[in-house]
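[SOLVED] Need 3D model of a two-part complex

Original post:
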Amino acid sequence: MKKQVDVFVQGEGLKDVVLVQLYHDAILIDVINAAKELGLLGGEQDDNCLIFLEDGDDAIDPGISLEKAGVHNRAHVHIHRHNRITVTVNFNAIQDVCEFPPSATVGRVKKWATNVFEMSEIDATEHVLQITGSTERPDEMTHIGALVTFPDKKISFDLVPKVRVEG
Amino acid sequence: MADTMSVEERVFRDHIEQGPFLSGVARKRWRILSTEWPYALIAISAAPRPNGPEEYVLRFDLTNYPQWGPTARPWDIENGAPLADGKRPHGKSHVPKTFRTDWKNGIALYLPCDRVAFQGHGGWMQQHPSMIWNPQCDITQYLRIVYDLLNSSDYTGPRCS
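Solution:
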């Protein structure tokens, strides 16, 4: 019996993580096609998709096998049509901008931002990234590409303090 | 045999087979221990602390899920009873407030996503919109919030460690 591999996918048009189940000898294009059936690209048909390992800086050749690509059982990958996303972070009327791969987690962006704004480690844990102009505070394991739909290629966050739950 | 599973239980069981929940399991953030409707026991990992456990178990009451939000309390699986006050998670600020025992005898977590805690706290809608439960949510909304607390610098370990 063929061995099955579970792959968690985030990407354009997907509201949250989706689980794709494939045989171990599948190739990356199979991951893309399976994710399309689950809502990737919001149902749009476009073959220009790039696939990344989570936090991976470079897209991987979609024609290679899961094993060769390092996509092991229960790995997390990202699929997007852009290779880079421009991220702006605002903090105390200061702003900084950096480019990240769409596979970068919100946690990675936050780490960059708290370094740029010279925040202490303790202060950093008391702040979160909130999408500018909204009340949405994505989980630190959310990939930034999941928050940006092609042809847009930028996103802006505010670095805000966590609000204490009071009575 | 007749299938007597309720719609709510069916929805919950479907949610814990989906990407958001299973991704958290794969990342070792949480795991399901059992479901005995309308209750479910879910273990949530905690950051290492002196004399601290690797995880805390919450007993969720999922009545009318997902139309109603979940409510949960820390649970002692060995004794099949609420976790003793001294073993509840403690910390500097947010964590003790969440796991407080001086409010409704600690029957629910003091969080905006908890349906028992939310009662009488209409102001939380404006103060904590990202933590409010709505019927489109799934159990991971609640789990992510608790996981963040138990893995924050605020968390110091069990109350009596």
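Edit: Helices of chain B lie at 7-15, 19-26, 94-98, 115-118, 124-127, 140-150.
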